[in-house]
Q: What sequence folds into this?
């Protein structure tokens, strides 16, 4: 058993305080390598808590909140912090889930309808384009709203405004993160049955981790604007 | 108030007694170091204070409270172990917070204490890392931090630097000393490294075979060892102990070693030396009290030429350790790096007797103190 003990107790290389901080994908994979086991546990927790279905939005916010802490290299008490975040964001998350779900469903319906119609008459290409852009914008806006909400406590309208601003300001990193999420599910489908455990182990938590990683900079930027940082409220 | 009293404290394992009725008074906020060779009972004594070993006899008091049967967790002490004893599956933050969580401390207080300790120890950047990634020095800081967040009255440190390399040990020595001043708590520190003991302690307890040999300040231990063991243990290279015969000379005495006549300073207590006139004693001269030239600031009456043969010269950079043979006895002299000699050379050094020691060869106790 000594090898097992040695594996646990042997000294590491140490962590240089002044080492240049990694950025971009290198940082993403560094955090993933460090937190992968926590992400597996988080994924299981997400699935477990989402079983009643109505809890899916709150579980999403809670998972995003934990992922946010991981991105910021903060300490996480998984179960405790998850349950607290669920409790904290339950109302906002549920409203977010219902509104986002409805609008995205509407957008997808419009895309499908105008897409079919555009085959028959080219005039429908214009509303099809509008539907496409609007749906993508709403998707990004909703995702940024999630990121802004778990990053700092802001009134609903202010959070909506800031997330819209972030969407316009830096859409590409979040689009990249969402593409990564799509690729996770695509990999699950393509490599089935080898990938049968992917959703159970990583897909939800790693997907939300990628989203929070992608949204981090924009969320921080909009929240650190002088008017926002001082907590100044603007009339809506 | 975290003064500690050990009264006739002893520890037995079956028929084997490893700590023999030791008496020790440790003042509040004192930095005291237990030092001695392996198996001398220093760690066992520390573990008895910590409550990790049952006390076989005697009394342990912290402040005015008898602690013999008080569980370890209720003694308001924190211990740092040689192997750090960090939980490998927990992050640094959780390792540090664990003790407070067990005590159900409020979360904001836990966080404030962990952050403060991390800042003091400069490990803020490690808080979300697991021990596996940390070097020995970083692990040691975490172990110290874990003790600090509890804000105990007494810190017990069991050879905390033994696993570190020499350079890091030097750095950590200074950090622990600074930490003691900053935390204003009582520190009891166990080591077998006399350099650690000399550089860090307010007082040193020298132990051997379960007995306390001497308790004193580092300088007093060095200058006034009460017996041959302490004289040999404190100081590196260790004190040269040579058999010499005491002879009266005028109003004073000399020590004669293999034909060399070495004057004993007039400052020595003649009344203590007189009974040994004509008898053999053990003469102790520290390596730095041999000089290649007679130093100008020393009374010439307290010096004498000392001839020896060079067996080995160890250049240390700032000095040379000369291993000498004199009168069939091995001895060591610390001389200037400019001193040129080679193996087999006959050299004559100047012995400065100002700080010489005399020991009774039978009892091994100091004749002078």
A:
């Amino acid at each position: 058993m000594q090898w097992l003990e040695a594996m646990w107790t042997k000294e590491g290389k140490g962590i240089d305080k002044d080492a240049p901080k990694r950025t971009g994908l290198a940082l993403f994979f560094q955090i993933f390598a460090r937190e992968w086991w926590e992400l597996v546990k988080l994924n299981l927790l997400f699935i477990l808590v989402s079983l009643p279905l109505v809890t899916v939005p709150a579980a999403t916010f809670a998972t995003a909140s934990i992922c946010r802490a991981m991105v910021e290299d903060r300490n996480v008490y998984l179960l405790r912090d998850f349950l607290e975040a669920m409790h904290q964001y339950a109302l906002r998350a549920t409203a977010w889930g219902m509104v986002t779900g409805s609008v995205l469903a509407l957008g997808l319906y419009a895309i499908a309808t105008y897409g079919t119609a555009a085959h028959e008459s080219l005039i429908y290409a214009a509303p099809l384009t509008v539907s496409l852009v609007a749906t993508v914008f709403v998707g990004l806006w909703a995702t940024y709203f999630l990121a802004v909400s778990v990053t700092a406590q802001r009134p609903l309208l202010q959070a909506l405004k800031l997330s819209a601003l972030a969407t316009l300001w830096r859409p590409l990193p979040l689009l990249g993160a969402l593409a990564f999420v799509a690729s996770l599910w695509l990999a699950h489908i393509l490599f089935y049955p080898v990938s049968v455990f992917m959703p159970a182990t990583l897909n939800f938590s790693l997907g939300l981790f990628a989203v929070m990683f992608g949204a981090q900079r924009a969320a921080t930027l909009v929240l650190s604007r002088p008017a926002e940082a001082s907590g100044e409220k603007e009339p809506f | 108030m975290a003064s500690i009293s050990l009264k006739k404290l002893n520890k037995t394992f079956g028929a084997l007694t490893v700590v023999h009725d030791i008496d020790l008074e440790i003042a509040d906020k004192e930095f005291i170091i237990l030092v001695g060779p392996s198996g001398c009972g220093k760690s066992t004594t520390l573990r008895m204070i910590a409550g990790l070993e049952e006390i076989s006899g005697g009394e342990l008091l912290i402040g005015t409270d008898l602690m013999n049967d008080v569980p370890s967790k209720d003694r308001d002490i924190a211990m740092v172990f040689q192997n750090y004893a960090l939980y490998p599956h927990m992050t640094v933050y959780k390792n540090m917070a664990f003790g407070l969580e067990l005590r159900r401390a409020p979360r904001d207080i836990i966080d404030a204490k962990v952050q403060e300790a991390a800042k003091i120890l400069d490990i803020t950047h490690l808080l979300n890392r697991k021990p596996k990634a940390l070097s020995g020095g970083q692990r040691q800081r975490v172990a110290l931090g874990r003790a600090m967040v509890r804000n105990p009255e007494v810190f017990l440190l069991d050879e905390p630097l033994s696993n570190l390399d020499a350079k890091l040990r030097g750095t950590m020595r200074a950090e622990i000393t600074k930490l003691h001043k900053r935390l204003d708590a009582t520190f009891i520190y166990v080591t077998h490294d006399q350099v650690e003991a000399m550089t860090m302690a307010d007082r040193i307890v020298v132990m051997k075979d379960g007995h306390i040999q001497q308790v004193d300040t580092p300088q007093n231990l060095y200058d006034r060892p009460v017996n041959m063991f302490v004289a040999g243990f404190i100081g590196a290279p260790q004190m040269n102990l040579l058999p010499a015969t005491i002879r009266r000379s005028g109003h004073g005495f000399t020590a004669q070693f293999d034909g060399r006549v070495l004057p004993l300073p007039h400052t020595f207590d003649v009344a203590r030396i007189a009974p040994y006139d004509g008898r053999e004693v053990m003469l102790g001269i520290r390596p730095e009290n041999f000089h290649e030239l007679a130093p100008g600031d020393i009374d010439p009456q307290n010096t004498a030429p000392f001839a020896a043969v060079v067996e080995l010269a160890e250049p240390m950079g700032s000095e040379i350790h000369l291993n000498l043979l004199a009168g069939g006895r091995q001895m060591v002299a610390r001389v200037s790096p400019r001193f040129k000699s080679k193996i087999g050379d006959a050299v004559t050094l100047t012995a400065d007797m100002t700080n010489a020691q005399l020991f009774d060869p039978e009892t091994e106790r100091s004749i002078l103190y």
About this structure: Chain B has a mean pLDDT of 92. Chain B touches chain A at residues 83, 88, 91, 93-94, 122, 125-129, 131-139 (CB under 8 Å). Residues 305-350 of chain B form a domain with the OB fold (Dihydrolipoamide Acetyltransferase, E2P) fold (CATH 2.40.50.140). The first helix of chain B runs from residue 42 to 50.
